[in-house]
Amino acid sequence: QKEVEQDPGPLSVPEGAIVSLNCTYSNSAFQYFMWYRQYSRKGPELLMYTYSSGNKEDGRFTAQVDKSSKYISLFIRDSQPSDSATYLCAMYGGTSYGKLTFGQGTILTVHP
Amino acid sequence: EAQVTQNPRYLITVTGKKLTVTCSQNMNHEYMSWYRQDPGLGLRQIYYSMNVEVTDKGDVPEGYKVSRKEKRNFPLILESPSPNQTSLYFCASSPSTGTETQYFGPGTRLLVL
Questions:
Q1: CA of A17 to nearest chain B CA: how many angstroms apart?
Q2: Cβ distance B91 to B4 under 8 Å?
Q3: Closest Cα in chain A, distance from residue B17 (Å)
Q4: Does B87 have pLDDT greater than 70?
Q5: Distances (CA, A) of A94 to A36, A62, A100, B65
Q6: Which of A73, B17, B77, B107 is the residue whose CA sits 20 to 30 A from A59?
Q7: In chain B, what residues touch A32 (CB-CB under 8 Å)?
Q8: B47 touches chain A (CB under 8 A)
Q9: For residue B74, which residues of chain A lie inside 8 Å, CB to CB?
Q10: Measured distance between the N- and C-terminal CA atoms of chain A, rounded to whole angstroms
Q11: Which residues touch B48 (CB under 8 Å, ≥6 apart)?
Q12: Does A102 reach chain B within 8 Å, measured CB to CB?
C-alpha cells in the first residue's frame, strides 16, 4: 500500500464548476501538507501549504486537512480553463527530515 | 532571475553508458532534491541534500548517485543506466529543510535504450 493515495483521474469539468481533489495517507506522522500544480511540460509549483489540521483559503483555492481521517482536499471554486493541469498532493513529517512524499497526481481539464 | 536549471533537458543513451544530469540553483538554498516522475506513480524522491556534503536516500535511490560539493550544484549520476531508469527527472531546491516551498527545475527527459 502506498503511503499517499491520490485518484489519478482524469477529471474533466465545465468552466465555473467547483472541483474537489483528494488524497488519503497512512502515515500518522505527516504534519505538513502541500498541493503542487504542474502544467504540461513544466516542473511542479507550490499552490497551497498547510500545517496540521484545518482549512486554508487563498483566492479560489481552499485546502482542507483532516488528520483524524488521514484525508486532505483541495477545492477550486469557479474553475477556469487556466486551471487545467496535474495537481499533486505532498506530505512531510516525522523523523525523516527532508523526505517529501507525493501522491500520484490528478489530471484536471476545465473546458470552456 | 531566481531559478533551478537542469542540463540536459533531453537525453537518449544506451544501457551501461555512464551519464550525469546537472542541477544548479542561484537562490542560495541549503536543501536540494532529485525526483523521478513516471505515469501512474507520481513524483518519487531519489536523493536529497540538506547542505554541502550532506546527502540522504529518498524512496528510490537504487542505481543513482549524488554529490553535493558546492551549495549551488547537485548532480545526479547514473553509473550504469538501465531501461527502467527511463523517466522524467526533476531537481528541486528549498531554503532550508525542504518543508517550505520547493522550487522545481524544468525537468530532464531521459530515454535509456
A1: 25
A2: yes
A3: 26
A4: yes
A5: 21, 25, 11, 25
A6: B107
A7: 99
A8: no
A9: none
A10: 37
A11: A98, A99, B31, B32, B33, B34, B55, B56, B58, B98
A12: yes
Q: What distance in Å separates the CA atoms of residue A69 and residue A54, rounded to the nearest whole number?
A: 12
Q: How many residues does chain A have?
A: 112
Q: What is the three-class DSSP state of A16?
A: coil
Pair type for strands B87-94 and B103-104? antiparallel
Encode chain A (112 residues) as per-residue pLDDT tens digits. 788 999 878 999 999 999 999 999 999 889 899 999 999 989 999 999 998 888 999 999 999 999 999 999 999 999 999 999 999 999 987 666 678 889 999 999 999 9
The half-sphere exposure of B41 on its side-chain side, counting CA atoms within 13 A, is 12
Rg (CA), chain B: 13
Q: Would you say A4 and A71 are in contact if contact means Cβ atoms under 8 Å apart?
A: no
Q: In the numeric block, which cell numbers belong to residue B72?
A: 549551488
Grid cell, residue A30, equals: 505527516
Q: Chains A and B: how many Cβ contacts under 8 Å? A: 62
- Of B4, B56, B104, nearest to A98 by CB-CB distance is B56
Q: How confident is the model at residue B22 (pLDDT cuts 50, 70, 90)?
A: very high
